[in-house]
Specification:
The protein is α+β, with helices and mostly antiparallel strands and 562 residues long. It has helices spanning 2-7, 19-30, 59-63, 67-83, 110-129, 143-149, 171-184, 233-241, 260-263, 316-328, 332-335, 389-404, 431-440, 466-475, 481-488, 491-494, 496-514, 518-550; strands at 9-15, 35-38, 54-55, 89-98, 139-142, 158-168, 188-190, 194-200, 206-213, 216-227, 248-259, 268-272, 279-287, 293-299, 303-304, 345-354, 369-373, 379-383. The protein is built from 18 helices and 18 strands. It is globular. The structure holds flavin-adenine dinucleotide. Residues 15-21, 38-41, 45-48, 50-54, 56, 194-195, 228-232, 236, 253, 300, 349-352, 384-387 line the site of flavin-adenine dinucleotide (FAD).
Amino acid sequence: MLDRLGTESFDVLVVGGGITGVGVALDAASRGLRTALVERDDFASGTSSKSSKLVHGGLRYLQQGEVRLVYEALRERQRLRRNAPHLVDVMPFMIPILGKPGAGDDTRSVVPRKVARALGSAMWMYDLTGGWRIGKLHRRLKRDAALAHMPSMPRDRVIAAYLYYDAAVDDARLVLTVARTAAARGAAVANGCRVVEITHGPDGRADGAVVEADGRQVRVRARVVVNAAGVWSDSVRALDEGADPDAIRPAKGVHLTVPWEKVRNDIAVVIPVPKDKRSLFLVPWFPNGDGTYRATYVGTTDTDYAGSLDAPATTADDVAYVLRALNASSDPSVSGGFTLDDVTGVWAGLRPLVKTGATGRTADLSRRHAITRSEHGVVTVTGGKLTTYREMAEDTVDEVVELLGRRSRCRTRRLPLLGAGRDRTVSGRPASDQHLLGRYGTLAAEVPADDPRLAEPLVPGLPYLRGEAVYAVTHEMARDLDDVLTRRTRARLLDRDATVAAAADVAALIAPHLGWDDAEVARQVDAFRRSCADEAAALLVAEAEYVAATGATPSPDPGAAT
Ligand code: FAD
């Protein structure tokens, strides 16, 4: 790929290998444009591996009056389900209606009845805006049915619930699959390749970039440059425009993973945050095949962020916020209550929101995307959602095509992603086959299984197989341990401690394929362990700060009303 980048001449060079960039590369390549994409670190290493992993319209955006955004997102949800049925799972969501303690037994409870009516109208709106496309309409659940979906809820506060449908996806895997589909359509796609300069021709127009990769610099020639660098897009614009435009307002979002047994939700649940007008998702992750799951992740926070873009950390406030909401929606006699000790994984991402001049909180800012063109012809695309990446890409490449003076139509609306094509729910297969089909679709057979050891778990207790780590480095451009354990698989997010314990073993497994000697294996393991230790230490500091500030560990808050 690096050779291609240095020798070919491209119509379009995309900077950034998150969902936005890979979407643009696929759209451009499928229209027949000579396309290159460079990612400075790993595919999806920015925001696109740290989302809530939902392919959704966003009920709350409807409540903010963003009807068009929700309509478009629900249309894209349907397209993505059709184009990547192996990756996108329909996910039922439940919104419980909670009252004060004892409200569940009080059928005359007035406030929740009002809440329920308002929610019922919102549910109808969601269905009408496009929720129906999934083939199921929302339903109201009685108290016992609601509790059956999440038995850890406080029984005496649950009055009823609403059930509706959205979808979920492994975000990093979606990015990788779109990138591979673009490559299969002829795009030159490289990770570990940072743009350090945007070059300009004699007429002042951008004509490519200089990238740094493997310690060398490569000049990439392209007629149009697309900046899809997410929260870093201002710094890429500065390379073109000479000054930082200060157009992005990063908003941090944190998720925590906790043991599923303590929550026992068999569907996603939307819980209220006490004393705030927001709610959090509780999403069950990785079915065991017997009605139980490996973990539940909870999120997200939504706060302004002014720290280093490269290392957004989880703070005391973040942890307290999430655990407080979790505790307020659970019965401690069933769940045992939640403290930091229950957190098995964590991730913090930055939303690349577009500055509008508004000063309100980030949760109220629009998730719509924006496309701008610099005076040198660099096209920048920012904002948007994972769910709407294809539409963002279509709009962006329409702009590119105009700059190129060409005419071509978008082809991605019905373009299957790599691995699509077979129904993933093939019954009668062993669980490991189901697991592989759900991650690779028709490519599952490529995951090596020639040695029985490759069918063993990569990390004890987690569903990934050793063959998947080998596949990640031979077929999926994983370059180091973190690529394999954090993004090609999501082991670190599911169970950090178990993943750290398996790190040396995994490094030894992939070493021959990456040409690592013993010293490099040791260096890789050390780097991965250190990164995980830093993450754990940040959480401990967060808890210590929380305890110092409040005198208590995040505790149940049974008095909180919806
Ligand atoms: P990124 O993924 O950050 O990609 C930008 C890339 O550019 C990075 O990989 C970076 O390394 C690279 N880069 C930067 N500088 C350079 C350079 N000089 N050279 C080369 N490469 C460079 N959306 C949904 O639809 N559903 C959800 O459930 C959802 N949940 C979310 C939850 C949270 C907490 C957050 C933060 C966002 C969520 N979103 C969700 C939104 C969605 O995740 C983002 O909109 C999307 O991932 C942004 O992708 P991106 O490609 O624009 O940015």
